[in-house]
Each structure stands twice: as structure tokens, then as C-alpha cells.
Amino acid sequence: MKNLKSISLQVLDGELLILDQQMLPDTENWISVESPEHMIQIIKQLKVRGAPLIGVAASLSLALWSKKGETLSGFKSVAEQLRASRPTAVNLMNAIDRMVAVATESSMNPQQIADKAVEIFEEDVRLCLQMAQVGEKLIQDGDSILTHCNTGGLATVGIGTALGLITHAHRTGKKIHVYVDETRPLLQGGRLTTWELDKAGVPYTLICDNMSGSLMAEGKVDKVFLGADRIAMNGDFANKIGTYNLAVLCKHHGVPFYTVAPQTTIDPSCSDGSGIPVEMRKEDEVRGVFGDFGAIRWAPEQAPCHNPAFDVTPVALLTGMVVGDQFHSQEDLMAGKLNNHFND
Ligand code: MRU
Question: Which residues contact ligand 1 via a Cβ below 6 A?
């Protein structure tokens, strides 16, 4: 397979390397992925995360491992386990289904399987650029933008989805300021988005998640841009827990609220948000925090906790959605325009 490189993933001389996102921002440690089973572990531990990135990483792990002469039934069985490693991000399922299809059609031809994984990688890079070019027009010089979770190069193999268009707007010379939600419980905003914005030189301010309402009341937020893990055909979408809170706040304060995603995030089998499965995670993640900085628990050891990793925002709260090279207003979404992505 040819060498590939993004800020969070590399294929180097046939070895798959993943940047351990649990060790950021202070330590940049690359994990050598030994097998798809190893990849499943890494995905579950959120060492690699973000809807598009896990799809690409899982595909590459399958492709590199299949070179060792696996049978089709062995391939399908491990692919099924990878597919189930995180239940909400549909990009993972999309990518795995494409890998299984090529393995089946080619009778396990390693070159064709490798080519498909490279195609999935390169497609994501291209889609990120398209989203940035379309979405950047929604940002005006002087805008103050709030974002949630991490949607940049650490969540994709390109420049990112929502964060991609934010950094693109900065690169084109627009003077913008970003408010970064820390994103409890796993702090993807506080640890990862800040790391990316530092690298890109974009001015930002880190806030706790419960500060967004008062910022909006003070008129300090012009727009909200964030990502999506699964989009239903009517425009309802799942994204990192806390997205729905922001959508409701935006409605109250009249702040435009946008989501940005590649078409691989649309689930044609989900007619509305009620069909989106929401991943439930361990209670320990709510009782404290852990990372390269160590582990801290502040709640009683047995404190009962509720820990959905995502929430579902209804299309009625969305101003619009950038999907690949298209922008859809709320009206477009309600008129079924997401079907455009399946008509070519
Ligand atoms: O649990 P995570 O960190 O994988 O969740 C990531 C998100 O919710 C992102 O907003 C989403 O994947 C879109 S990123 C391109």
C-alpha cells in the first residue's frame, strides 16, 4: 500500500500508525496498529476517534491485515466486530461495508482491498476541502464562532469538518475568534480542539460547557459550527453530547446553528433521529477525568451516572447543514434535499 499521512494517522512502509489522542495535548505518541482486533481496542478507548477518522482507520487496518492471506469468512467476521466497535458514527459502518463488498467481489484480492482503503482515505481528504470551501462562505470577517467537541484533523484525515471550515476561513484572512466548549465528559474540546487551533494560529478562548448560554446572552457568539456522527434523512442528526443544549440555546438567542459533515455521515436507512442508536459509555467517565495528566475521580466511587456519548438534535433547531460540496438550509432539509446525495 502507498504511504499516507494526516495529522492523526499514517501508513508508512506498510505499517499503520495512529496518534494516541488520549495523550494529547502534551504528548504526541504514535501507536503501531498490530491487527484489526488491536484497532477495535484503540477505537473503544477513543485513542482514535471522530466519525470519519474511525471509518478510515478501521478500513486501513483491515486492508493491511488482509495481506497476510486471510479467508473471506475471517475477513467478514473481524469486519463485523470493527463495525460494532462504536455504534453511533455511521461513517464507520459505511467504510466497513465498502471494504467487505470489495473483499467479496474480488475474492480477497489484497491489492483491490488496499486500493479501496486508500480510496476511502483520499475521499475523506477531498470531502473535507469541499466542506471548507462551501462552508467558509457562511463565516464573515469579525465573526465570533462557538464550536463543540473536536471536528478537525483529529477527527478526519483531512482538514476536518466544522473545524476545517473555521481554520480555512482564518487562512483566507478572515479575522475570527473561536469559543471552544471543553466538551465533558472526555474533553475533546479542551484537549484536542485547543491543540489544533494552537497549531493553526487561530485565536480562541476555552470555556466550560455551561458557559455558552451566558456568552450568547451577552451577544458574544455570532454563529455555532459543529460536526455530526449520523444524519437522518430528514436532517435530524446525532453529535457529541451537549450539541442539543447548544441548539436550544441558539434558538432562544437567535444565533445561527450549523452542522458540517461529509455525505458518509448520512444514514439513508434512518428516516428521522428516533432511529439513531446512541452509544452509552462507562459511568467512570462522568465520575472524574483521565488522560495523560493522570486519573482523577471527584464523585463518590459508586455514584450512579448517566453517560450517553451523543445526543440527537432535531432539524427544526438547525439553521443549515454543509454536506460535502452542498449547503442545505433547514427548509431544504425539511423538503428532503438530502436525497440529492444518493441520486448520482
Ligand atoms: O466521541 P467522539 O470524540 O468520537 O465524538 C466525535 C464527535 O462527536 C464529532 O463531533 C463528530 O465525530 C464529527 S467530527 C468530524
Answer: 49-52, 89, 149, 151, 155-156, 161, 188, 226-229, 239-240, 309
Please identify, by atom number, the ligand 1 atom nearest to the C-alpha of residue 91. Answer: 12
Query: In the listed set 114, 129, 144, which residue is the last one of a domain according to the structure?
Result: 129
Digit-coded pLDDT (tens) for 187-227: 999 999 999 999 999 999 999 999 999 999 999 999 999 99
d(CA 325, CA 322) in angstroms, rounded, equals 7
The rounded Å distance from CA 63 to ligand 1 centre is: 24
Q: What pTM does this model have?
A: 0.96
CATH of the domain at 25: 1.20.120.420
Statement to judge: residues 19 and 102 lie in one domain: yes
Q: Which domain holds residue 145?
A: 134-343
DSSP E strands, 75-215: 144-147, 177-181, 204-207
Report pLDDT digits (tens) over 273-330: 999 999 999 999 999 998 777 899 999 999 999 999 999 999 999 999 999 999 999 9
Minimum CA distance residue for ligand 1 atom 14: 151
Residues 41 and 157 in one domain: no
The answer to whether residues 157 and 92 belong to one domain is: no
**How many structural domains are present in the chain?**
2
User: Which residues are designated catalytic?
Assistant: 229
| Cβ-proximal residues to 285 (8 Å cutoff; 6+ apart), any chain | 185, 186, 305, 307
The residue whose C-alpha atom lies closest to atom 13 belonging to ligand 1 is 227
